[in-house]
Amino acid sequence: MSQHLSATVTVFASPSSWIESAAVDQCHQVAALDGMLHVAAMPDLHPGKGAPIGAAMTSAVLYPFLVGSDIGCGIAVFPIRLKRVVPERLAARFPDLDVPPEPGDPAWDAIGGDVPLGHLDGLGTVGRGNHFVELARVGTVFEPAHAGRLGLAAGDPVLVVHSGSRGLGERILRAHTEVHGAGPAPDPAAYLARHDAAVRWGRLNRRLMAARVAHALGAEPTEPVVDECHNLVEIRDGAYLHRKGAAPGDGRDVLVAGTRGTPSYLVAAHAGADAGHSVAHGAGRKMSRADALRRGKAKHTVEELRRTPVGSLVVCGDRQLLFEEAPTAYKRIEQVIGDLTAHGLATPVATTVPLVTYKTADQGPRRRRGRP
DNA sequence: ATGTAC
Protein backbone atom coordinates (compact mmCIF):
# COMPACT_ATOMS: atom_id res chain seq x y z
CA MET A 1 0.00 0.00 0.00
CA SER A 2 1.16 3.54 -0.62
CA GLN A 3 1.66 6.08 2.06
CA HIS A 4 2.74 9.68 2.04
CA LEU A 5 6.23 10.08 3.40
CA SER A 6 7.06 13.48 4.80
CA ALA A 7 10.31 15.10 3.73
CA THR A 8 13.23 15.25 6.13
CA VAL A 9 13.68 18.33 8.33
CA THR A 10 17.13 19.25 9.61
CA VAL A 11 17.66 22.19 11.96
CA PHE A 12 21.17 23.64 11.91
CA ALA A 13 21.26 25.08 15.39
CA SER A 14 22.81 24.01 18.67
CA PRO A 15 20.55 22.89 21.54
CA SER A 16 21.34 26.14 23.35
CA SER A 17 20.01 28.21 20.45
CA TRP A 18 16.39 28.97 21.12
CA ILE A 19 14.12 28.49 18.14
CA GLU A 20 10.43 29.31 18.28
CA SER A 21 8.45 26.07 18.13
CA ALA A 22 5.93 27.66 15.73
CA ALA A 23 8.75 28.02 13.20
CA VAL A 24 9.78 24.36 13.54
CA ASP A 25 6.10 23.42 13.19
CA GLN A 26 6.02 25.38 9.94
CA CYS A 27 9.05 23.42 8.71
CA HIS A 28 7.17 20.17 9.31
CA GLN A 29 4.05 21.54 7.60
CA VAL A 30 6.17 22.41 4.58
CA ALA A 31 7.86 18.99 4.73
CA ALA A 32 4.44 17.36 4.44
CA LEU A 33 3.58 19.12 1.17
CA ASP A 34 3.36 17.02 -1.98
CA GLY A 35 6.70 16.50 -3.63
CA MET A 36 8.83 17.85 -0.77
CA LEU A 37 12.23 16.23 -0.42
CA HIS A 38 14.08 18.12 2.30
CA VAL A 39 13.79 21.14 4.59
CA ALA A 40 16.98 22.66 5.99
CA ALA A 41 16.36 25.17 8.78
CA MET A 42 19.00 27.79 9.50
CA PRO A 43 19.85 29.03 13.01
CA ASP A 44 17.98 32.30 12.32
CA LEU A 45 14.74 30.38 11.74
CA HIS A 46 11.55 32.18 12.78
CA PRO A 47 7.88 31.96 11.84
CA GLY A 48 6.74 33.58 8.62
CA LYS A 49 3.42 33.99 6.91
CA GLY A 50 2.61 30.41 5.89
CA ALA A 51 6.22 29.38 5.46
CA PRO A 52 9.15 29.64 7.85
CA ILE A 53 11.81 32.30 7.38
CA GLY A 54 15.37 31.03 7.45
CA ALA A 55 14.93 27.80 5.52
CA ALA A 56 16.05 26.10 2.32
CA MET A 57 13.28 23.85 1.03
CA THR A 58 13.81 21.30 -1.75
CA SER A 59 10.97 19.73 -3.70
CA ALA A 60 10.03 18.07 -6.95
CA VAL A 61 7.52 20.85 -7.66
CA LEU A 62 7.83 24.63 -7.52
CA TYR A 63 5.87 26.37 -4.76
CA PRO A 64 5.90 30.17 -5.26
CA PHE A 65 4.73 30.81 -1.68
CA LEU A 66 7.94 29.18 -0.38
CA VAL A 67 9.87 32.09 -1.92
CA GLY A 68 7.30 34.60 -0.75
CA SER A 69 6.45 38.04 -2.06
CA ASP A 70 9.85 39.72 -1.80
CA ILE A 71 11.43 37.72 -4.63
CA GLY A 72 15.06 38.75 -5.09
CA CYS A 73 15.50 40.27 -1.66
CA GLY A 74 19.16 40.19 -0.70
CA ILE A 75 22.10 41.87 0.94
CA ALA A 76 24.94 43.53 -0.93
CA VAL A 77 28.20 45.09 0.26
CA PHE A 78 29.75 47.99 -1.64
CA PRO A 79 33.13 49.51 -0.81
CA ILE A 80 32.93 53.28 -0.44
CA ARG A 81 35.78 55.77 -0.27
CA LEU A 82 35.14 58.57 2.18
CA LYS A 83 37.52 61.28 3.28
CA ARG A 84 36.03 61.86 6.70
CA VAL A 85 33.69 59.62 8.59
CA VAL A 86 31.61 61.58 11.06
CA PRO A 87 28.31 59.69 11.54
CA GLU A 88 26.30 62.78 12.53
CA ARG A 89 27.35 64.67 9.41
CA LEU A 90 26.91 61.71 7.08
CA ALA A 91 23.49 60.77 8.48
CA ALA A 92 22.23 64.25 7.57
CA ARG A 93 23.43 63.78 3.99
CA PHE A 94 21.65 60.49 3.25
CA PRO A 95 19.19 60.84 0.36
CA ASP A 96 15.48 60.15 0.86
CA LEU A 97 15.38 56.45 -0.03
CA ASP A 98 11.59 56.27 0.40
CA VAL A 99 11.19 58.03 -2.96
CA PRO A 100 12.86 57.15 -6.27
CA PRO A 101 15.72 59.27 -7.62
CA GLU A 102 14.79 62.21 -9.85
CA PRO A 103 14.84 61.40 -13.59
CA GLY A 104 18.14 63.23 -14.12
CA ASP A 105 19.88 61.80 -11.04
CA PRO A 106 23.37 60.51 -11.97
CA ALA A 107 22.74 57.44 -9.80
CA TRP A 108 20.64 56.03 -12.66
CA ASP A 109 23.89 55.42 -14.55
CA ALA A 110 24.56 52.58 -12.12
CA ILE A 111 21.88 50.42 -13.77
CA GLY A 112 22.49 51.44 -17.37
CA GLY A 113 18.84 51.75 -18.32
CA ASP A 114 18.07 48.15 -17.35
CA VAL A 115 14.55 48.00 -15.88
CA PRO A 116 13.38 44.35 -15.79
CA LEU A 117 9.77 43.91 -16.98
CA GLY A 118 9.68 47.69 -17.45
CA HIS A 119 8.71 47.96 -13.78
CA LEU A 120 9.92 51.42 -12.82
CA ASP A 121 7.66 51.82 -9.79
CA GLY A 122 9.68 51.87 -6.56
CA LEU A 123 13.04 51.38 -8.26
CA GLY A 124 15.72 53.01 -6.12
CA THR A 125 13.69 52.81 -2.88
CA VAL A 126 14.49 50.74 0.19
CA GLY A 127 11.04 49.67 1.42
CA ARG A 128 10.15 48.84 5.00
CA GLY A 129 10.30 45.98 7.48
CA ASN A 130 13.83 44.70 8.01
CA HIS A 131 15.22 46.49 4.95
CA PHE A 132 17.96 49.07 5.43
CA VAL A 133 20.85 50.88 3.80
CA GLU A 134 23.81 51.13 6.13
CA LEU A 135 27.13 52.88 6.16
CA ALA A 136 29.40 50.57 8.17
CA ARG A 137 33.04 50.05 8.86
CA VAL A 138 34.92 46.77 8.57
CA GLY A 139 35.58 45.72 12.17
CA THR A 140 37.32 42.52 13.23
CA VAL A 141 38.99 40.70 10.37
CA PHE A 142 39.21 36.95 11.02
CA GLU A 143 40.57 35.98 7.58
CA PRO A 144 42.80 38.80 6.31
CA ALA A 145 43.78 37.04 3.08
CA HIS A 146 40.15 36.36 2.19
CA ALA A 147 39.08 39.88 3.11
CA GLY A 148 42.01 41.20 1.10
CA ARG A 149 40.81 39.35 -2.00
CA LEU A 150 37.54 41.28 -1.62
CA GLY A 151 39.54 44.50 -1.27
CA LEU A 152 38.54 44.88 2.37
CA ALA A 153 40.65 45.61 5.44
CA ALA A 154 39.85 46.61 9.02
CA GLY A 155 38.51 50.14 9.22
CA ASP A 156 37.34 50.38 5.62
CA PRO A 157 33.94 52.01 5.18
CA VAL A 158 31.35 50.00 3.24
CA LEU A 159 27.69 50.33 2.28
CA VAL A 160 25.46 47.41 3.22
CA VAL A 161 22.17 47.33 1.30
CA HIS A 162 19.33 44.99 2.30
CA SER A 163 16.36 45.33 -0.01
CA GLY A 164 14.43 43.47 -2.65
CA SER A 165 12.02 43.79 -5.53
CA ARG A 166 9.46 46.01 -3.74
CA GLY A 167 6.06 45.85 -5.43
CA LEU A 168 7.23 43.75 -8.37
CA GLY A 169 7.81 40.50 -6.46
CA GLU A 170 4.57 41.02 -4.56
CA ARG A 171 2.72 41.39 -7.89
CA ILE A 172 4.29 38.21 -9.27
CA LEU A 173 3.37 36.13 -6.21
CA ARG A 174 -0.15 37.59 -6.11
CA ALA A 175 -0.76 36.70 -9.76
CA HIS A 176 0.01 33.09 -8.88
CA THR A 177 -1.83 33.04 -5.56
CA GLU A 178 -5.04 34.53 -6.95
CA VAL A 179 -5.42 31.47 -9.18
CA HIS A 180 -3.53 28.67 -7.45
CA GLY A 181 -3.28 29.72 -3.80
CA ALA A 182 -0.45 27.90 -2.02
CA GLY A 183 -0.38 25.25 -4.76
CA PRO A 184 2.51 24.61 -7.09
CA ALA A 185 3.22 26.59 -10.25
CA PRO A 186 1.53 24.70 -13.11
CA ASP A 187 3.94 26.31 -15.57
CA PRO A 188 7.24 26.55 -13.68
CA ALA A 189 9.08 28.07 -16.65
CA ALA A 190 6.60 30.95 -16.83
CA TYR A 191 6.91 31.63 -13.10
CA LEU A 192 10.69 31.31 -13.25
CA ALA A 193 10.92 33.85 -16.07
CA ARG A 194 9.12 36.46 -13.95
CA HIS A 195 10.97 35.38 -10.81
CA ASP A 196 14.35 35.74 -12.51
CA ALA A 197 13.38 39.23 -13.67
CA ALA A 198 12.47 40.16 -10.07
CA VAL A 199 15.81 38.79 -8.85
CA ARG A 200 17.58 40.99 -11.40
CA TRP A 201 15.37 43.94 -10.40
CA GLY A 202 16.36 43.46 -6.75
CA ARG A 203 20.07 43.44 -7.60
CA LEU A 204 19.67 46.59 -9.70
CA ASN A 205 17.69 48.22 -6.90
CA ARG A 206 20.50 47.60 -4.41
CA ARG A 207 23.04 48.92 -6.87
CA LEU A 208 20.98 52.02 -7.60
CA MET A 209 20.54 52.82 -3.92
CA ALA A 210 24.25 52.33 -3.23
CA ALA A 211 24.97 54.78 -6.06
CA ARG A 212 22.47 57.28 -4.64
CA VAL A 213 24.09 57.15 -1.22
CA ALA A 214 27.63 57.23 -2.63
CA HIS A 215 26.83 60.40 -4.62
CA ALA A 216 25.12 62.01 -1.64
CA LEU A 217 28.15 61.32 0.56
CA GLY A 218 30.57 62.67 -2.03
CA ALA A 219 31.95 59.31 -3.18
CA GLU A 220 32.02 57.41 -6.46
CA PRO A 221 29.62 54.47 -6.89
CA THR A 222 31.28 51.05 -6.81
CA GLU A 223 30.51 47.48 -7.79
CA PRO A 224 29.36 45.21 -4.95
CA VAL A 225 31.96 42.77 -3.55
CA VAL A 226 29.17 40.62 -2.12
CA ASP A 227 25.54 40.40 -3.28
CA GLU A 228 23.42 37.37 -2.47
CA CYS A 229 19.64 36.94 -2.57
CA HIS A 230 17.97 35.11 0.28
CA ASN A 231 14.48 34.84 -1.25
CA LEU A 232 14.62 32.88 -4.49
CA VAL A 233 14.21 29.47 -6.09
CA GLU A 234 16.69 27.65 -8.31
CA ILE A 235 16.76 24.33 -10.12
CA ARG A 236 19.44 22.21 -8.54
CA ASP A 237 20.13 18.51 -9.07
CA GLY A 238 16.80 18.23 -10.87
CA ALA A 239 14.77 19.65 -7.97
CA TYR A 240 13.48 23.06 -6.96
CA LEU A 241 15.55 24.57 -4.18
CA HIS A 242 13.48 27.32 -2.53
CA ARG A 243 15.26 29.70 -0.24
CA LYS A 244 13.28 31.93 2.12
CA GLY A 245 15.51 33.95 4.38
CA ALA A 246 18.39 31.68 3.48
CA ALA A 247 21.34 32.73 1.34
CA PRO A 248 23.15 30.59 -1.23
CA GLY A 249 25.98 28.99 0.70
CA ASP A 250 27.77 26.99 -1.94
CA GLY A 251 31.28 28.45 -1.94
CA ARG A 252 30.10 32.05 -1.86
CA ASP A 253 30.68 35.02 0.38
CA VAL A 254 27.58 36.18 2.23
CA LEU A 255 26.87 39.07 4.54
CA VAL A 256 24.81 37.73 7.44
CA ALA A 257 23.05 40.78 8.81
CA GLY A 258 23.19 41.57 12.52
CA THR A 259 20.89 44.26 13.82
CA ARG A 260 20.69 48.06 13.93
CA GLY A 261 23.01 48.11 16.92
CA THR A 262 25.30 45.10 16.54
CA PRO A 263 27.85 44.02 13.93
CA SER A 264 27.06 41.95 10.84
CA TYR A 265 29.27 39.06 9.72
CA LEU A 266 30.77 38.58 6.30
CA VAL A 267 31.25 34.81 6.00
CA ALA A 268 32.75 32.39 3.51
CA ALA A 269 29.91 29.91 3.05
CA HIS A 270 30.48 26.25 2.24
CA ALA A 271 27.17 24.53 2.95
CA GLY A 272 26.41 21.11 1.51
CA ALA A 273 23.27 19.38 0.29
CA ASP A 274 21.99 18.54 3.79
CA ALA A 275 21.92 22.30 4.51
CA GLY A 276 20.23 23.00 1.18
CA HIS A 277 23.48 24.59 0.01
CA SER A 278 22.49 27.56 2.17
CA VAL A 279 23.41 29.68 5.16
CA ALA A 280 21.48 32.01 7.48
CA HIS A 281 20.63 35.48 6.21
CA GLY A 282 20.61 37.39 9.48
CA ALA A 283 20.22 37.32 13.23
CA GLY A 284 16.58 36.23 12.92
CA ARG A 285 13.70 37.73 14.87
CA LYS A 286 13.15 36.39 18.34
CA MET A 287 10.04 38.52 18.90
CA SER A 288 7.07 39.19 16.68
CA ARG A 289 6.72 42.78 15.53
CA ALA A 290 3.77 43.21 17.89
CA ASP A 291 5.78 41.92 20.89
CA ALA A 292 8.81 44.00 19.93
CA LEU A 293 6.63 47.11 19.82
CA ARG A 294 4.91 46.43 23.13
CA ARG A 295 8.02 45.33 25.05
CA GLY A 296 10.28 47.86 23.32
CA LYS A 297 8.13 50.78 24.42
CA ALA A 298 8.49 49.61 28.04
CA LYS A 299 12.22 48.97 27.73
CA HIS A 300 13.74 51.56 25.40
CA THR A 301 13.55 55.24 24.66
CA VAL A 302 13.50 56.47 21.08
CA GLU A 303 16.84 58.17 21.78
CA GLU A 304 18.65 54.98 22.72
CA LEU A 305 17.34 53.21 19.62
CA ARG A 306 18.51 56.07 17.41
CA ARG A 307 21.98 56.09 18.99
CA THR A 308 23.05 52.47 19.41
CA PRO A 309 25.50 50.68 21.75
CA VAL A 310 28.11 50.56 18.96
CA GLY A 311 27.82 54.34 18.57
CA SER A 312 25.94 54.24 15.28
CA LEU A 313 22.99 56.38 14.30
CA VAL A 314 19.66 55.04 13.04
CA VAL A 315 17.73 57.25 10.63
CA CYS A 316 14.11 56.24 11.14
CA GLY A 317 11.26 58.73 11.27
CA ASP A 318 8.81 55.92 11.98
CA ARG A 319 8.67 55.38 15.74
CA GLN A 320 6.81 52.08 15.49
CA LEU A 321 9.31 50.66 13.00
CA LEU A 322 12.16 51.74 15.29
CA PHE A 323 10.73 49.61 18.13
CA GLU A 324 9.86 46.69 15.85
CA GLU A 325 13.41 46.64 14.57
CA ALA A 326 15.12 47.13 17.94
CA PRO A 327 18.26 45.00 18.37
CA THR A 328 16.59 43.25 21.33
CA ALA A 329 13.85 41.97 19.00
CA TYR A 330 16.49 39.82 17.29
CA LYS A 331 18.62 36.87 18.32
CA ARG A 332 22.28 37.37 19.07
CA ILE A 333 24.14 37.36 15.77
CA GLU A 334 27.17 35.72 17.44
CA GLN A 335 25.01 32.73 18.34
CA VAL A 336 23.78 32.39 14.75
CA ILE A 337 27.32 32.66 13.38
CA GLY A 338 28.53 30.21 16.03
CA ASP A 339 25.91 27.69 14.89
CA LEU A 340 26.87 28.12 11.23
CA THR A 341 30.53 27.61 12.13
CA ALA A 342 29.87 24.63 14.42
CA HIS A 343 27.91 22.89 11.67
CA GLY A 344 30.61 23.58 9.10
CA LEU A 345 28.36 25.81 6.98
CA ALA A 346 30.48 28.96 7.06
CA THR A 347 33.72 30.57 8.20
CA PRO A 348 33.67 34.17 9.48
CA VAL A 349 35.80 36.49 7.35
CA ALA A 350 35.12 39.89 8.95
CA THR A 351 32.53 41.91 10.79
CA THR A 352 30.97 45.15 9.64
CA VAL A 353 30.09 47.61 12.39
CA PRO A 354 27.26 50.11 11.75
CA LEU A 355 27.98 53.84 11.55
CA VAL A 356 24.68 55.10 10.07
CA THR A 357 21.69 52.89 9.32
CA TYR A 358 18.98 54.36 7.13
CA LYS A 359 15.52 52.82 7.63
CA THR A 360 13.11 55.55 6.55
CA ALA A 361 13.26 59.32 6.28
CA ASP A 362 13.31 61.36 9.44
CA GLN A 363 10.13 63.26 10.16
CA GLY A 364 9.69 66.97 10.17
CA PRO A 365 10.88 69.53 7.64
CA ARG A 366 13.48 67.78 5.58
CA ARG A 367 16.44 69.15 3.71
CA ARG A 368 15.54 69.01 0.05
CA ARG A 369 17.74 68.69 -2.99
CA GLY A 370 19.25 72.07 -3.88
CA ARG A 371 18.13 73.75 -0.67
CA PRO A 372 20.13 74.40 2.47
C1' DA B 1 7.27 42.86 3.00
C1' DT B 2 3.87 44.74 0.34
C1' DG B 3 0.07 47.92 -1.63
C1' DT B 4 -4.27 48.94 -0.20
C1' DA B 5 -8.17 49.17 2.49
C1' DC B 6 -10.05 50.77 6.81
Overview of the molecule:
This protein is an alpha+beta fold. The chain has one domain (8-368): tRNA-splicing ligase RtcB, CATH 3.90.1860.10. It contains nine helices and 15 strands. It has helices spanning 21-31, 87-93, 144-149, 166-180, 188-216, 289-299, 302-306, 319-324, 333-342, and strands at 8-11, 36-46, 53-59, 74-79, 132-141, 157-163, 226-229, 231-236, 239-244, 246-248, 250-256, 264-270, 278-280, 313-316, 346-360. Strands 4, 5, 6, 7, 11, 12, 14 and 15 form an eight-stranded mixed sheet that branches. A five-stranded mixed sheet has the order 1-2-3-9-8, sandwiched between helices. Strands 10-13 form a two-stranded antiparallel ribbon. Strand 8 (231-236) and strand 9 (239-244) form a beta hairpin. Helix 4 packs antiparallel against helix 5 (188-216). The protein starts with 7 loop residues before the first strand and ends in a 12-residue tail after the last strand. The model is unreliable at 366-372 (pLDDT under 50). The structure holds one DNA strand of 6 nucleotides. Mn(2+) 2 binds at residues 162, 230. Mn(2+) 1 binds at residue 131.
